[in-house]
Amino acid sequence: xxxxxxxxxxxIAYLALSTENINSGSPDDxxxxxxxxxxxxxxxxxxxxTGAIEWDIGALWYIYGVRGGGxxxxxxxxxxxxxxxxVTLSKNLAVGATAFYAPEQGLALPEGLTLQGDIGYKxxxxxxxxxxxxxxxxxxxxxxxxxxxxxxxxxxDGDRHKSIVYWNTGLRLDVERLFFDFRYWDTNISxxxxxxxxxxxxxxxxSP
Length: 208
What we know:
Layout: E1 3-10, E2 13-21, E3 38-46, E4 49-50, E5 53-64, E6 78-88, E7 93-102, E8 112-122, E9 130-142, E10 153-154, E11 160-161, E12 163-175, E13 178-187, E14 197-204
Antiparallel strand pairs: 1-2, 2-3, 3-5, 4-5, 5-6, 6-7, 7-8, 8-9, 9-12, 10-11, 12-13, 13-14
């Protein structure tokens, strides 16, 4: 998978665009798996600070590349609302919590709620690098509607799930305006579309 991310900020406001290739179904598949071959995400929000709390209040729009298969554009794409807060507990330690709420999630999926916790610890400098260890754990779950009695979804292997618990842990290296991130992702579900992976990412800060 290849991902490209760019973010524009003005004061506390931000607009971000994320594009990645995904392998999830074909245009002839009207099931939930038919989402690829690419995904475009649009994020817009505010990051105000009140006292020791840094907030992240935003809206996210997920746009999927697959078309056809008898399913319209708006049956796959969906919106999500975000509310996050983080606190720096000491010079090196920061913790945060984020909630994501989707009124509906495409293809008749009911409303979904994700709760996520984050922790990061900045280590002492190693040469020109500033390393930070971090970890995330979260749970995504579905409500219930007439199409999904019991609030479950079906993965590409045909197995039903009411929720997913996901986590990641990794190391980020900052040097001047550059960063390099090495991260392992996994979930509590054994499925071909939720398999564990190691992800490397890099970026540059071009702000004045």
